[in-house]
């Protein structure tokens, strides 16, 4: 590698670790390896920074935030009277563009170079253990990369396209198009009631679209029912027509450039744009895994990210198919980078399992995954629901209540919220917490710490919440539980 981190080519290059995918997860894996004193090379065919930076986390939340801020002002007497208009769509989209750096990754590239990580822009295929061929973007010919210690797959995920008649070949939005669009469709039809579909339905409704959301199951069906009912009420208040527990039979284009969707009940919905958001799957195809006898659909890996049956191949983030959340992927990547470094130094042997609390393992994936739905109201959840805990064999109970404390009353007039804690009755510790309501995402890390640290409820009782804040809900939950 040259001094500034670029890879000269085309030629055969040896390095310690090769990371495929320069999104947030790949950057963290490579960064942790370099911090540990090893060399690392990132291989990326598209923008450095990946899906989260340009088409997912950042632009979607940038689209949501102005509407939430406006609603927050409208929800308090005194500021409500000062609100005289609606969102300015142009300003919302321009602000969104600023958070994506206008889809320019020069700043990300500068960070990679400054960190001492090598960079190859191109698409890689595994030739054998620790060896890859890269077709470079600059047409400089193929480059061979050889990793002395490890190859890390941080290739992210791709959308799942449902088998609906007429969809193949249709000009529709995926989440990428929905988060990067520069025009507001008058009518938007959203297929999919998961987090992305729900968030984007509300974002575009508040920016100016008339939105219909269609879902085969309930909206946000992985979350407790009282929480998702609050979100559905929020969607309805923004004019979103929510159609749940119904599938789509067909889609077709219209002569005016729009789209029609036929539902299983015989009704037909019309819109100017269709957004399909029906899940994602690990992006593993085209990497040459089949030639190594590995599954190109889903790879089994341990808590260090090491792929079963190998001593050199790791998979992290969405590509691992465990927890498809950017923050968990980055956490996995940090653990994997530390494990690779430890194994290279001989302090962690082969596929040996580190201690559960070691930095070389991502054990929180099993029991303490935090997640936020950034709708208005928000849902913030960490750990397991009551049903999940019991399915895992935990002797679990739940305590829930409406979120009604002095802090919530001050936060917004007519505040509506809900809170739940799930308790392991044998150990008397929390295994799950859910909050729903405006502004509750900022409560989440306290719950994450309580679950990860296995804080006994009797000790948690002495964590006094400040008054008057929404966090006083902790006291109310513990009191209702019986402490």
UniProtKB/TrEMBL annotation:
Residue stretches making up the FAD/NAD(P)-binding domain: 16-328
Disulfide bonds: 52-57
GO BP of this protein: 2-oxoglutarate metabolic process
GO MF entries: dihydrolipoyl dehydrogenase (NADH) activity; flavin adenine dinucleotide binding
Cofactors required: FAD
Keywords: FAD, Flavoprotein, NAD, Nucleotide-binding
UniProt superkingdom: Bacteria
Residues annotated to bind FAD: 61, 155-157, 318
Ranges where the Pyridine nucleotide-disulphide oxidoreductase dimerisation domain occurs: 369-474
Pfam families the record matches: Pyr_redox_2, Pyr_redox_dim
Binding site for NAD(+): 192-199, 279
Note on how the cofactor is bound: Binds 1 FAD per subunit.
InterPro entries given in the database record: Class-I_Pyr_Nuc-Dis_Oxidored, FAD/NAD-bd_sf, FAD/NAD-binding_dom, FAD/NAD-linked_Rdtase_dimer_sf, Pyr_nuc-diS_OxRdtase, Pyr_nucl-diS_OxRdtase_dimer
Family to which this protein belongs: Belongs to the class-I pyridine nucleotide-disulfide oxidoreductase family.
Protein name: NAD(P)/FAD-dependent oxidoreductase
Organism encoding this protein: Arthrobacter jiangjiafuii
